[in-house]
């Protein structure tokens, strides 16, 4: 599989996708038609227009999967797919409802380049349990695409030592996840991404990433770190006694 999984689509002070354009240009075939999945936001037309304008300098044509009667047909005729960010629960629900969850899994598994950002990165995991989003809709379960066999936390925020906030930090919430589930969590700070091609997985971007695993110290991963070993993960969920996958 060929995956480019961005933590975020926009960095502070920059235009949409600007920071990641060189990586996208290397990932998506030149001149390709990109099927865009806009379901994580409510206004599909406006979202698709934003993506189209951002990718136009790369010579890529963007077609929203919502534009035709059959979203799967739009996907089948494209050379790459981009699943955009927004609300992960809304995105997953729409993928289930349209049948794109299965079609995406099959097409990407057969070699179609997959570009995901934020929610689009979350759904590349086995489940969406490590999303930061509010469940504004109720999908039919949390199982997602499973393009990688581990979890990702996008928009990872480091703990502010000077904060007066009394709620859990992001790291504490992820450790709570690991108390119930035995599967690595790759935490991508904004500006970071995961690139997977030909069985090689690398974290890259302008910021370091973190790796959280059950019963082990958190690891800092500098840009360029090879994390291909994560592709051999055998995830186990709900190890507290309910079920294991």
From TrEMBL:
EC identifiers of the protein: 3.4.13.21
CDD domains assigned to the protein according to its UniProt record, in alphabetical order: GAT1_Peptidase_E (cd03146)
Entry annotated with the keyword rRNA-binding: no
UniProt GO molecular function: dipeptidase activity; serine-type peptidase activity
Annotated segments matching region Disordered: 226-245
Gene3D superfamilies given in the database record: 3.40.50.880
Catalyzed reactions: Dipeptidase E catalyzes the hydrolysis of dipeptides Asp-|-Xaa. It does not act on peptides with N-terminal Glu, Asn or Gln, nor does it cleave isoaspartyl peptides
GO cellular component: cytoplasm
Superkingdom, taxonomy of origin: Bacteria
Keyword Protease: yes
PANTHER family listed in its UniProt record: ALPHA-ASPARTYL DIPEPTIDASE, PROTEASE S51 ALPHA-ASPARTYL DIPEPTIDASE
Family the entry assigns: Belongs to the peptidase S51 family.
Protein name: dipeptidase E
Classification of source organism: Bacteria, Bacillati, Actinomycetota, Actinomycetes, Propionibacteriales
């Amino acid at each position: 599989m060929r995956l480019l999984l961005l933590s975020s689509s926009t960095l502070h002070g920059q235009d949409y996708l600007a920071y990641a354009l060189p990586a996208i240009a290397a990932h998506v075939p030149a001149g390709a038609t990109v099927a865009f999945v806009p379901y994580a936001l409510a206004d599909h037309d406006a979202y698709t227009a934003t993506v189209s304008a951002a990718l136009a300098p790369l010579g890529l044509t963007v077609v929203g999967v919502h534009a035709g009667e059959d979203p799967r047909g739009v996907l089948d005729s494209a050379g790459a797919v981009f699943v955009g960010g927004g609300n992960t629960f809304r995105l997953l629900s729409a993928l289930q409802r349209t049948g794109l969850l299965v079609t995406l899994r099959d097409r990407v598994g057969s070699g179609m380049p997959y570009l995901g950002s934020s929610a689009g990165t979350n759904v590349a995991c086995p489940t969406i349990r490590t999303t930061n989003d509010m469940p504004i809709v109720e999908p039919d379960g949390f199982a997602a695409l499973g393009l990688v066999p581990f979890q990702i936390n996008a928009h990872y925020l480091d703990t502010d030592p000077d904060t007066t906030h009394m709620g859990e930090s992001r790291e504490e919430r992820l450790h709570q996840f690991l108390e119930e589930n035995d599967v690595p969590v790759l935490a991508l700070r904004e500006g970071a991404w995961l690139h997977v091609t030909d069985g090689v997985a690398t974290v890259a971007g302008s910021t370091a990433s973190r790796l959280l695993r059950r019963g082990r110290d958190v690891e800092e991963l500098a840009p360029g770190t090879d994390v291909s070993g994560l592709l051999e993960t055998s995830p186990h969920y709900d190890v507290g006694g309910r079920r294991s996958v």
